[in-house]
Amino acid sequence: MTGKDDIVGRSSALLLSTLAYAGIASVGTGVMLNGVYYITRDVFAFTDLRNLLLGLCVQVPYIPAALLAGPISKRLGARRLLTAALIGMALACAMLATLPPQWAWWLLAPCYNAFAGLQWPIVESYIASGRHGRDMRRAIGLFNITWAAAIPPGLWLISIMHGMPQVTFIVLAVLHGATLGLVTFWPLQPPRHDADAARNHTGEAYPNLLRASRTLLPMSYVLLYMLGPILPGIFERLDVAAAVAPTLGSTWIIARVGVFALMYWRPGWHGRWGILGFGAFMLISGTLVVLLEMNVWSAVLGLGVLGVGQGMIYYAALYYGMAVEHAAVDSGGRHEAVIGLGYLLGPTLGLLGGALPIGSPTVTAGVILMTSAVSIVGSSLAMRFYVDARRRRGRAAPVHRG
Fold it and tell me: When comparing pLDDT for 99 and 326, which is higher?
């Protein structure tokens, strides 16, 4: 085997190992970020408002953790920091498996999410660093498909183990512990990323596409995490059995997997503004359909539509971030911090919407108003970068004189 073949072989082995890690870790994400609200509603009879408050507490530590992942990994080594984070997640799940008193959930779930905030920027850097252009898009596409496809099983596990949530957390603790065997063989830091090669694969519009997608990305997570904590209540009001609701709630996640696969298979979307505009439209319209609470099938359809839109925005934001910012852990940290902003603002604005005195017995009427406001503001801000890109392109065009 030549030296070049050996490098390619090690790169492929690292990619496969990182993908396996992402898949296993995402089962935990599916439970802790999307499914825990079904458990608290079932075990502690949490209301929509209390679940929104729990969602706010869970998300508070995510942003600082994501932003600190880069600086800390430079000092300790990315692999060492990731190892510490996954041990922390395993311990948090093990303690939740004892079904502790209600107050402990308000402490342990945020601790888990802090470790998750440290984890994902590192994983994203190992996925993308050292890759460029088509190779980077391929790696990011496989990563997106892998982690997104692993989230629904976490929600299905809650449905299968309905009435036995401690088993769910035992499974998560074991899964996180098992990933230690994968991380042990990773290099201490992600592969070196060639900045000169990166410039050859970065289009002129990429910086503005990155800014626009990073504006729409938190908007998408605001809408998702305004909706997520109250989704169990919506299904309950639509007479969906508690054991079935988590499975139906995974519809948007399954739809997102389909979009990730399509964008991986048909890569011609990069550099095009239409993907962001269509994604934003699907996201907003799907969220509003769910919040209207017309019937079970409209709610499931709305979840599927918003999943398609959110997937388009997420894929674009991650790719442009890694392409423009050289696939560093710091880039992954900014990407995850932007997501964390959505995690944090979603429950916050949901609480504000639920507190509005608009004469409705449920919080969804107020959340509809908040959804509309967030959609208008987010879309308008993203549109500024499109206008700027068009203006720059117009100035760069040659002038023809008659």
Answer: 99
Q: Which of the residue ranges 154-168, 193-207, 240-254, 321-335 has the most confident prediction, judged by mean pLDDT? A: 240-254
Q: Pick the residue with more confidence: 378 or 400? A: 378
Q: Please give the Cα distance from 71 to 274 (Å, whole number).
A: 35
67 closest CA partner among 330, 319, 344: 330
Segments in 97-132 forming alpha helices (H): 102-128
Spatial neighbors of 365 by CB under 8 A, at least 6 apart, are 356, 358
Read off the pTM.
0.80
CA of residue 329 relative to chain centroid, distance: 16
DSSP summary character for residue 66: H
What's the CA gap between 331 and 317, in Å, rounded? 11
- 187/209 Cα distance (integer angstroms): 32
Instruction: Give the 3-state secondary structure of 336-384.
Output: HHHHHHHHHHHHHHHHHHHHCCCCCCCCHHHHHHHHHHHHHHHHHHHHH
Q: Give buried/exposed letters for 7-40 (b at 16+ CB in 10 A, else e).
A: eeeeeeebbebbbebbbbbbbbbbbbbbbbbbbb
Residues shown for the chain: 402
pLDDT, one tens digit per residue, over 208-236 is 888 999 899 999 999 998 888 889 889 99
Structure tokens that stand for 264 in this block: 């991986």
| DSSP structure string for 256-280 | HHHHHHHHHH-GGGTT-SHHHHHHH
Residue 83's pLDDT band, with cuts at 50, 70 and 90, is very high
> Quick one: which H or E segment has residue 60?
none
- Per the prediction, the chain carries an average pLDDT of 84
**What distance in Å separates the CA atoms of residue 401 and residue 161, rounded to the nearest whole number?**
73
Q: Does pLDDT of 145 surpass 70?
A: yes
CA distance linking residue 55 with residue 33, whole number of Å: 8
Q: What are phi and psi of 316, to 5 degrees?
A: -65, -45
